[in-house]
Structure formats: C-alpha cells, structure tokens
Amino acid sequence: MSKKILIIYNSREETQNTKRIATYMAQAIDAQLISISEVDNYKIEDYDLVGFGSGVYFGKFGKSLIKYINNLEPFNQSCFVFYTSGAKKCDKAMNNFIDLLLSKKRKCIGSWHCLGRDVAFTLFKKTGGFNKGRPSEQDCQDAAIFIKELFDK
C-alpha cells in the first residue's frame, strides 16, 4: 500500500527558497505539493504523512503556517518539518514549531534545514541579499535524499 503524502510550504514571494526545496521533495517521492494559501482546499487528515516547510523570518516560521497549525484540531498524524533561513540554522524556531505540532498530536519524524537567499533588509536588497545562489542545486539534491530516506523508514 502506498502512503498518501502532502507537503505544505510557506515561502516568501521574493525568493521562493522554501518552495524550491518543497518542489524537489515532492518530486522525489511523488507527494502532493501545496502552498499555505491553498491549504483550506485540503483535508490533511486524509494523508498518512504531512510535511510542513517554511522560511524563517526574524526567528520564526511563517505567520500563515503557524496560524494554520494553531487552528488545527488534534489528530494523531506523522509529519516532518523543513525550513530555509538566511543567517544560520534556527533550532529555536524549528523546536518551537515542532512543539506546536506536538500540541496538536502530530508526531514529527524528521527535520531538515538549508540556507536560503535572504533579502529581508533594505540595505542588502540592492546587492541581491545574503546567500546568493542558495538554496543551491546541491541543497535541493540533499533535500530529495532526506525525504527519500525518511519515506523509506
């Protein structure tokens, strides 16, 4: 029996960092891929595994994704978390998000991170921001490897 997998992402329009990673993940395991703006058209309880991806903005996952999780009814479901960030690995943001999922009875079975291009500060927008070229092709391949290994468990 094949698993039904949904990947929901929250990605900044300017960079699309998280969307790019989410796309590679979805293609690697033939998962359904949707933006947080489309999520109201889906019943996530119908999926065996749900991935939640976001950029980290000023130390937190995207507001739309957090609001969505806050409004979920508790439901026993496996999930995974991935994120992109401009400055560094943001374990606190990820752990806070995982705690939120746990409060909704979701079980996080894995997490993944990579750097993404950051254009948040006006001064740096003119030069293209930090981490130009990220996520890189290697980051995308690493994301695909992560999800295949997670899916095989």
Describe the structure.
With 153 residues, the chain is of the alpha/beta class. The protein is 35% helix and 26% strand. The protein has helices at residues 17-29, 63-70, 91-103, 122-125, 137-152, and strands at residues 5-10, 32-35, 49-57, 60-61, 77-85, 106-115. Strands 1, 2, 3, 4, 5 and 6 form a 6-stranded mixed sheet that branches. α1 packs across α5 (137-152). The two termini are 14 Å apart. The mean pLDDT is 89.
Topology:
Blueprint: E1 5-10, H1 17-29, E2 32-35, E3 49-57, E4 60-61, H2 63-70, E5 77-85, H3 91-103, E6 106-115, H4 122-125, H5 137-152
Parallel strand pairs: 1-2, 1-3, 3-5, 5-6
Antiparallel strand pairs: 3-4
Helix pairs in contact: 1-5
Distance between the termini: 14 Å
**Helix/strand structural class:** alpha/beta
Average pLDDT number: 89
Uncertain regions spanning at least 5 consecutive residues: none
Tally of separate helices = 5
What would you report as the Rg, rounded to the nearest angstrom? 15 Å
Q: What is the general shape?
A: globular
Tally of strands: 6
Descriptive key words:
153 residues, alpha/beta, 6 strands
In short:
Helices cover 35% and strands 26% of the residues. By secondary structure, the protein is of the alpha/beta class.
